[in-house]
Amino acid sequence: MQNFRQVGDQLTTIAPADVVSGQGIKIGAIFGVCTHSAKSGADLVIRIKGVVTLPKASGAVTEFQKVYWNDTDKVVTATATGNSLIGVGRAAASGAGSVDVVLDGTSI
User: Fold this and answer.
1) What pLDDT sits at residue 105?
2) Nearest-angstrom CA–CA distance, 48 and 40
3) Is the pTM of this model over 0.70?
4) How far is CA 68 from CA 3, 40, 74, 98, in A?
5) Exposed, middle or buried, 45 (CB in 10 Å: 0-12/13-18/19+)?
6) Using an 8 Å Cβ cutoff, are 11 and 30 in contact?
7) What are the residues facing 52 on neighbouring strands?
């Protein structure tokens, strides 16, 4: 197929700010996780599909519950209001500082 560009698990973009490897980032209408550190304006590869561990807000997440990105606090939350859907989470207790997230790669 001549028009195939790349597998869609990762996308190359331009870093909108300085970022570090493993950081969750919302760029336009897509969410991804930085695969490497990059300075603002440099090429950046983000993972948009797969399972990643991200920092979590204080509430609990039940097994495969929809989870959202709070772009202000840069954490995953189970609260939909004001946040962007990024996938589903694995079970994580209220006091846990992180949660495994199954990224679905869709626009937010």
Assistant:
1) 82
2) 20
3) yes
4) 33, 25, 10, 13
5) middle
6) yes
7) 101
pLDDT in tens, 13-28: 999 999 999 999 999 9
Distance CA 44, CA 39 (A): 9
Of 26, 104, 97, give the one whose Cα is nearest residue 64: 104
> What is residue 35's DSSP assignment?
S
Kindly report the number of other CB atoms within 10 A of residue 68's CB atom: 22
Task: For residue 71, give both structure tokens.
Answer: 């772009």
Q: Alpha-carbon distance 29 to 56, whole Å?
A: 21
Beta strands in the chain (DSSP E): 10-14, 24-27, 30-34, 43-47, 49-55, 65-70, 75-77, 84-89, 98-104
Q: What's the pLDDT at 69?
A: 96
- Please tell me the number of Cα atoms within 13 Å of 41 on its side-chain side: 0
